[in-house]
Amino acid sequence: MLKIRQLLRSEIIQLKFFPPDDWNLDLPQLISLHFGCSYFYPIIAEMDGKIVGCGISILHGIISWLGAIIVLPEYRKRGIGKEITCHLVSYCKSKGCTTQLLIASEMGEPLYTKIGFEISSTYTFYKNESAISTQHISNIRKVKPEDVQSIKEIDKEITGEERFVFLKKFISTGWIYESDKTKDVKGIYLPDIGSGLVIAKDANAGLTLMKLRLSLGKTSAIVPSKNTVACEYLISQGFQEYRTVPRMVLGNDVLWQPTMLYNRGAGYCG
Questions:
Q1: Of the candidates 1, 3, 31, which has an alpha carbon nearest to the alpha carbon of residue 15?
Q2: Where do the H-state alpha helices sit in the chain?
Q3: Which of 52, 62, 70, 255 would be a feasible disulfide site paired with 75, CB 3.0-4.6 Å?
Q4: What CATH number is given for 3-97 in this structure?
Q5: Is-same-fold flag (3-97; 127-263)?
Q6: Residue of 234, 161, 168, 158 whose CA lies nearest to 33
Q7: 264 φψ region: left (φ > 0), alpha (ψ -120 to 50), beta (else)
Q8: Residue 251's closest CA among 90, 41, 122?
Q9: pLDDT in tens, 91-124
Q10: 3.30.420.40, 3.40.50.720, 3.30.360.10, 3.40.630.90: which CATH number matches 127-263?
């Protein structure tokens, strides 16, 4: 009999080999970082006394993200993925969420569509054989304590989400792009959110922070397909497009700014 329940801390390590290799996701590390936080809800699917599937929700007020929905290969096609997803959806609704977001894999998209999720936009994946050479980068500095309010405001403007409780875990290692004259914060690079979140209020700030990220040895990037400035820059640097994935929504869509996102943080948080 299938049982869906909340994950115990002692069980986190058992999920180490659940994600596919191409996800590049250390799932125990992710869960351990957020375990016990009010916004974080990790669950498992249990069958025959064995953990056979998992999933997480990250809740930001009325908006939530679903992610890491995985079923072990030998237990697929039994409806377990659907049960995990529906459980997360029901939980988020019970907490007042009117919008639920996820980024779908090719395998997961048909399932999410049946549940009621709809495609709202797409992300394009790029890769390069080697890191680009270091370029001259100006107007960049490390985050200071006085930047926190600006970071909070810019992130809300661009993502449409009230997620600072989640975001503040990653601020101390971040980078800022500030304008020449006013010294206003125009963009943010938070390297410790997944593959490194880059958001910016204008193209100059966004491209400069992209250059910083790539100069640190990154050979891949994921950007909203609508951000043509970012896409064209990556192609000009020798990157090749190799995948497009849908961002899906259940409920009210979010008023966000995809042209201001210059690298997606992770599939579980956008």
A1: 31
A2: 27-34, 80-94, 109-115, 148-159, 164-167, 203-215, 228-236
A3: 52
A4: 3.40.630.30
A5: yes
A6: 168
A7: beta
A8: 90
A9: 999 999 999 999 999 999 999 999 999 999 999 9
A10: 3.40.630.90
CA within 13 Å, CB half, 12 = 16
Question: Whole-prediction pTM value?
Answer: 0.95
Going by C-alpha positions, the residue among 158, 160, 153, 167 that lies closest to residue 252 is 160
Question: Most distant CA pair in the chain: distance in Å?
Answer: 64
Q: Judge residue 16's burial from the number of C-beta atoms within 10 Å of its C-beta, 0-12 exposed, 13-18 middle, 19 or more buried.
A: exposed
pLDDT of residue 133: 77
Domain-by-domain residue ranges, the chain?
Answer: 3-97, 127-263
Parallel, antiparallel, or unpaired: how do β-strands 99-103 and 63-71 relate?
parallel
